[in-house]
């Protein structure tokens, strides 16, 4: 069985909510691709059906969806449409109402949190956010964080350095934190963060197109090999970052990553941990 620990769901509604705060001049500068607009035509019902079809076909037990806007009713409706969908809320943990927002999101059906450090442009390690982390630790609410590069508008790479979470994972040792896309360019920093920390996971999702922007010649295979050494097979969580419309489930990413693990001669039971058990354990799903 497989758990895909990172996916998205877009409709016209959730897309509008996501770009709602982006300044007009940025939207003009970055034209939304025709193809993406095509995908937005599908509603929640279409998304539910397409996802369940793909998951049945590929042996995916559960998929974790990252909200792209705070307190989205449409996103909650989608998450609650199947018990095989897991919802992670989008929250800015430094806002004064972050704890209340989290409580409301839990009520709406979310069971984890996605922090968009780079595009959210907040200081993820700020003291203002600590009550939020305290609640997450107490209630065992897992956190996935997108540091590093992102296609999202209005992002700030200065806020996207994984080292910014260093104090938090030390201060809250029971908090479960997964760094998405191998740190999306901050691979070195993500590895450094793991030093003697049991509560940190590295997550594999996406095309990993941050690799050409590194000052070295790492391939995705090298990244897996190094992650296996530093995080261990029990510290790596699989994901694809699929948005199902218009192109369907990203089977090529599932294949690429399992091929790499097989090439590296990772034992079958470790591969099962990476593509299934680790997410189940870390995210309590
Ligand atoms: Zn994503």
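-> sequence recovered:
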């Amino acid at each position: 069985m497989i758990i895909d620990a990172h996916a998205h769901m877009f409709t016209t509604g959730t897309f509008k909510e996501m770009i709602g705060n982006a300044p007009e001049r940025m939207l003009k500068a970055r034209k939304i691709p025709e193809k993406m607009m095509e995908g937005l035509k599908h509603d929640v019902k279409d998304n539910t059906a397409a996802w369940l079809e793909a998951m049945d076909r590929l042996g995916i037990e559960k998929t974790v969806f990252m909200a792209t806007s705070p307190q989205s009713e449409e996103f909650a409706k989608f998450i609650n449409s199947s018990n095989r969908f897991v919802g992670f809320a989008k929250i800015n943990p430094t806002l004064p109402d972050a704890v209340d927002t989290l409580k409301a999101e839990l009520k709406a059906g979310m069971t984890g949190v996605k922090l968009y450090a780079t595009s959210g442009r907040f200081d993820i390690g700020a003291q203002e956010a600590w009550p939020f982390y305290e609640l997450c630790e107490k209630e065992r609410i897992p956190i996935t964080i997108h540091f590093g590069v992102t296609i999202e508008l209005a992002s700030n790479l200065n806020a996207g350095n994984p080292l910014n979470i260093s104090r938090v994972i030390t201060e809250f040792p029971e908090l479960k934190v997964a760094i998405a896309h191998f740190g999306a360019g901050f691979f070195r920093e993500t590895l450094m963060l793991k030093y003697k920390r049991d509560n940190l996971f590295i997550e594999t999702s996406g095309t990993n197109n941050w690799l050409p922007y590194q000052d070295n010649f790492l391939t995705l295979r090298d990244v897996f090999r190094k992650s296996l050494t530093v995080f261990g097979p029990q510290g790596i969580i699989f994901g694809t970052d699929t948005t199902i419309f218009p192109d369907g489930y990203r089977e090529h990413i599932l294949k690429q990553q399992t091929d790499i693990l097989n090439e590296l001669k990772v034992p079958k039971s470790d591969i099962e941990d990476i593509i299934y058990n680790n997410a189940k354990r870390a995210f309590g799903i």
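Residues 32 and 38 are 10 Å apart (CA to CA).
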